[in-house]
Amino acid sequence: MNNSERVAKLSERLQALQHNLKSDKAVKTNEFDTRIQNIETQFAEVHEINKEKFEGLKDDVLIDLKQ
Question: What is the pTM of this model?
């Protein structure tokens, strides 16, 4: 195998590695985005639940203060 064949083979391998890295990066980025969206959804749900609880407690306190 001469030098130009070696260079061509190494170039092909390098291109394959770069392609795989780009693909892996895209997959991991999508997984990360999905996880962030799930966390944001869970946070919003918990926030809403706590908001309702505290509104109820606030109402209870105000009723107790009026009595």
Answer: 0.67
